[in-house]
């Protein structure tokens, strides 16, 4: 059966049409049309019977057509019309009407084509014939005519009738009495009252009223008349933020042409955001954007172009160095494609003023298993040094780990120049399992936030060795390390004053080791290097090698002593322990005992601990309220199946927590993007 390929081809052609690639859509539809005409009659009868269609398209016809024949004729006609080939569009529309004389949609298209050829009278006759045929087939044969196309056809017929057959003026006879002078006076039309709401506004109110318009709406307002154009463009702030969501090549081209017209008045943008409807057009969209916006400046640029590769983007951006040099913040969703991994970041060579950079790599077409970069202290190739990056303050590299199997931009990071970067986030990349996989961290000595998550091959043990052996910097405030695999245990060596842990972590406020391989003993040793007066937040959820107990047990490294652990942090504000091993009511009693140390605690996250009951939660919150005199600000108990809605309502009514999150259907924290590319992309 050839039915399935034809349907697939139809869908593919529709995709090309929606992408405004009318040439390819037309070619595909015409091939489908030839295929539909090649079916034998018996096969067509079976197809129409299987789809529960009548044997003939028209009751007065004795010819059998393919079920999709009419749709294909319509698609071919509309493609020709979009390509401005009106003669071909006219031909295929007439063929469609010959097959289905009651097709109101075809009559609407036919009269529109005739109007474009200035054949108003013929278009009017077509509308009259279409209305008549639709009514005739509906009354005689009971064929259901779609109401919307038929109403449009009737309105077209009425409009054309007024143009072709103007109403005859009725000559009124005047009776003139003798000896009377008749003075005919023309009736004057009352002068129209026009209310210009834009021009009449005070200049300071105009931005407040039209400032909430989308970019498309604002441009439409400006094009109403010259006076509105002058009013709108007298406000530079209105065109500072442009967003083209679900855009196409045609939309982007229109914007670029419009931007050329206003460049002399407004040659700078605060924000430009673009996301494509059809990723296939990403390369040519970017070529048009970087080529046509010459002379523009932009502070923040957000581009979601998953089919545009880094090599292509490097070529396009090199054509507009003025725009590149003005960028301070950039977010990109791109595809990685480079046979030379050392030059992944060539597209950024002219962005010397960047302060914040976020790159999300959605796919990779370059060769996998690229060897790890080997750094030579005696020789560094000048081309590899990203001299443009000296002003960078925040860098995020996020990869879809299912499609990207290497560490993009590793060369850029390894040869990073002297900088003042404060935030570094790397997720979803693949590390080579070597001893010096984190040696490049020595390039970043001013970091305040460091985030590693879901990086295949990245080892927490190796990372902690770097913190132990090298003085990386004393400004780190937030550290997140979530591992790809938790098979190994990280116990950490016994504490020693000769290590650099104390220096590197002296200002740490937040520690997030969720989903890591650290053990209870290792965590106990690590926190001994922290400054209690600075520490505010800890997340040790989903750590399979940690078990909360009252006292430490040297023979079992998984034991974490609740007594010695929580007493060390009297200023703790957030305790996050979702999916925390065997946390049940007996372990919750250990938390009751530590409530005297939680005077500043604001948030507790106990999600996905199914063994905890409502009784233990209620007692914990009641104890905190009695000791401190004020309730907990935020309680999260998503996925705690043993806590009923009755307990949750009682906690709310008693005022034991200001805010409660309780969603029973959550299965696992990983499922909701805590450890995924989407989490960082939406952050």
From TrEMBL:
Q: Which residues form the F-box domain?
A: 195-242
Q: Which Gene Ontology BP terms does the record give?
A: SCF-dependent proteasomal ubiquitin-dependent protein catabolic process
What the entry lists under PANTHER family is as follows:
PARTNER OF PAIRED, ISOFORM B-RELATED
Residues in TPR repeats: 6-39, 70-103
- Could you state one GO cellular component term attached to this entry? SCF ubiquitin ligase complex
Keywords on record:
TPR repeat
Output this protein's name: F-box domain-containing protein
Task: Note whether 4Fe-4S occurs among the keywords.
Answer: no
Q: Which Pfam families match?
A: F-box-like (PF12937)
Q: Species name for this entry?
A: Zygosaccharomyces mellis
